[in-house]
Amino acid sequence: MIYSFKGYIPVVHESSFVHPLAAVTGNVIIGKNCYIGPGAAIRGDWGEIILEDGVNVQENCTVHMFPGKSIVLKESAHVGHGAVIHGANLGRNCLIGMNTVIMDDAEIGDECIVGAMSFVKANTVFPKRSLIVGNPAKVIKEVSDEMIAWKTKGTQLYQQLPADCYESLKEVEPLREVPEDRGRQEAFYKTLEEFKRK
User: Fold this and answer.
1) Would you call 173 exposed, middle or buried from its count of C-beta atoms within 10 A (0-12, 13-18, 19+)?
2) pLDDT tens-digit series, residues 90-117
């Protein structure tokens, strides 16, 4: 669902995928190979929202701001299920954990990882490569090369997902029983702990 608002029409690159159950409104610019999941709301009604190339905003996320603000989710930013980004800027190749809330004028540095269910207070600035957790959120250590390699691999899956959705996502009627030949899906990505053991 793409909506104009007060003359602003969202701009979405043709390689990006916005799920039909997401809502993108007003002054929003979405770059290449971005994925916007079902239930996500990206509301550029009171200010500008820019998603650079390769960003994903997953299911049931909200991106919004106070009036007159402009925010940027930089290249390859990864926003996990249910997160709220309200007037904050996200650095390149960062990971925002599920159900995290990031408040106005906060700055998440490049390659930061914010743990699930963290609360980042307004005006908080975190330097690049910070591992951030808690309520209120604080830095507990530096993100290692291994952690950022794992995160980058996961984001690449979401950067491929728009093409996969265009190729195979279809609205269908459900089956009434499980087919005998229903295959198993490949385990092509590992948890961080499994990744470390490779």
Assistant:
1) exposed
2) 999 999 999 999 999 999 999 999 999 9
The CATH number of the structural domain formed by 2-142 is: 2.160.10.10
Q: How far apart are CA 68 and CA 189, in angstroms?
A: 40
Of 49, 93, 54, 39, which is closest to residue 70 (Cα–Cα)? 49
Give me 1's structure tokens: 């669902």
Q: How far apart are CA 29 and CA 18, in angstroms?
A: 12
The domain limits of the chain are: 2-142
User: How far, CA to CA in Å, does 136 sit from each of 60, 95, 133, 139?
Assistant: 22, 17, 8, 10
pLDDT at 196: 73
Q: How many CB atoms lie within 10 A of CB 97?
A: 19
CA angle, corner 128, sides to 122 and 134, nearest 5? 50
> Does residue 167 come out as left (phi exceeding 0), alpha (psi in the -120 to 50 range) or beta?
alpha
Answering whether pTM is above 0.85, one says: yes
Assess whether the previous peptide bond of 136 is cis (omega < 30° from 0): yes
